[in-house]
Structures are given as structure tokens and as C-alpha cells.
Amino acid sequence: MKILTLNTHSLIEENYQEKLQKFAMIIQREQPDIIALQEVNQSVSAPLADPDRLTDYFPCQDNYVSIRQDNHAAQAAWLLHQAGLTYHWTWLALKLGYGKYDEGIALFSRQPITNTDSFRISLTSDYGNWKMRKVLGIQTQGRNDWFYTVHMGWWNDTEEPFQSQWKHLEFCLKEKKASGIVWLMGDFNSPAEIRAEGYDFIHCSGWKDTYLLAKQKDDGITVAGVIDGWRDKIKDSDSHTNRNGMRIDHIWCSQNVPVISSNIVFNGSNGPVVSDHFGLMIHTKGADES
Question: Strands 101-109 and 88-97, how do they pair?
Fold first, then answer.
């Protein structure tokens, strides 16, 4: 099974349509079984999407925002559909971004989606607050696993502390963890290189970092420089981050699983750059793989 996560930056990106095409091209090449996306935007003023282009869309029960024509997930799914590659997908609006976008999170699956789950982890429930956070999950045909796309806040945020968000996430997933495998994929805003903060907090909670489990891996860096949300958090003297980047996008699993490889994609050397984040893709060993 291949799993990919990417913070897309979507409509905010310069040369967006070109990058969307390149994204679809690499998905056609790699054909991940599960894709987790964050910062999946649509313009609040765009016309509603044509229902004929939403044939593979599985509505999330917690989503009260209609899909619009420029919805990033809808556009990507349609491009893949036109290329003969069907992905079943769902999208959840979280908040108003930059004053003009419905910003959300999305999941894509090669297999039909059979169930969705979503819940809020932020203290705020204000759609107009850019620090609003929710988690979106799916189950797919033929699997008992739950797959969640996650976009966490920051460790030292006094208004929306990471610890509070993580503890609420753990509480909401307690029963699912006890009954099967749960995957958490996304932008955790938690550099693996920094001790005694978000990364260690998750690791000490018993979750398994698939990067560490992987038999074959690269450097794992998902952000090469200082990006939105980090400009006031990275000091000029932080030579490690300035020189080497950060590993802040992760794929966590609730159980030890055999991981063949963990690789960065959409980084300029393994696929074109399409966002201010690079993508992270793992290949896990299934019963039918040697």
C-alpha cells in the first residue's frame, strides 16, 4: 500500500494551474492508494461545482460548505478521472483563509470510501478564525484501517496550544486505536529535529513514525525554508533549520507495521515542486508483497 501526504497550498500558489497539472501527472505515475491533503482551498465567491464532475465525491457528514468550481480537490480528482484514474475523495471545510478561501482538508482513495469521520481539535469553533482545526478520516472498501488527514497548530501557541489539540485528538481516536490500525497523515507543524516539543509528544504517546520504521528512506525534509506560519518562530540563529530545512510533515501509525520505504516527492528532484511543502510517501508491505 502506498500512502501520500501533502500540504498543497493549492490556490495560493503562483502558477497554480500549471502546478495542479504537474501534481496530477505525478499521481498518475505513483498511483498512491491513499492521499491525504491539507490547505485544500476554494474561493468563497466561485460558482458552485458542476454535479457531473463530482461523481466520485463522498460527502463528509460534518461538511456544511458546498463544493465550488475551483475547489482544489475537485479539480485534481477531475484531472485524474480524465486521465482514466479514478479516485474516490472527500473534503471538509475548516475555516476562512486569507479572507477569501474556504480552506479545508481532503482524502483520496483508490478504493471506494465506505465511511467518514471528523471532529474539531481546536479550542475555537469560529469559522472566521484562521487557527480553527479539525481532523478528517475515512475507511475504505476492503480495509478496517482508519486514515486521517491532520493539520495541527504550533507547540508554543498560547491561544491554541499543540498539547490541547493533540490530547483531544487522542481522546476522539481512543476506541478506533483499540480496535484496529489508525493512520495520521499531514502537516503536524512539529519538526522532528526539535526535542521535547510536538514530535516527541506524539512519539511518547505510543504512535509510530513510519519514517523511522522504513527500511529505505531519504532525508525526510518536507519544508526547505521558512514558510507562512513559521516566519515568527524560526530565529536567524537557527542554523539547522536555515541550512537543512524541517521534517514537519509526518505519517504516523498506531501500530508497528512493515514499511518498505519512506520518500519525499514534489521536491524538485523526485517530481516537480507544487507547494511550499514537499510531499511524503510511504510504501507499506502488504500480504501480497514480498
Answer: antiparallel
Local structure of 239: helix, strand or coil? helix
Contact 118, 137 (CB under 8 A): yes
Helix, strand, or coil (residue 162): helix
pLDDT, one tens digit per residue, over 86-111 is 999 999 999 999 999 999 999 999 99
Question: Rg of the Cα trace of the chain?
Answer: 18
Cβ neighbour number for residue 55 with a 10 Å cutoff: 11
Task: Quote the CA–CA distance of 280 and 149 in Å, as a whole number.
Answer: 13
Residue 117: φ, ψ to 5°: -145, 145
* C-alpha cell belonging to residue 157: 501557541
Q: How far apart are CA 281 and CA 35, in angstroms?
A: 9
Residue 228 has pLDDT above 60, yes or no: no
CA distance to 25, 227, 239, per residue, from 242 (Å): 31, 11, 5
Rounded to 10 degrees, the C-alpha dihedral 69/73/75/76 comes to 180
Going by C-alpha positions, the residue among 120, 191, 171, 123 that lies closest to residue 150 is: 120
Architecture of domain 2-284: 4-Layer Sandwich (3.60)
- The mean pLDDT value for 180-200 works out to 96
Return the pLDDT at 191.
95
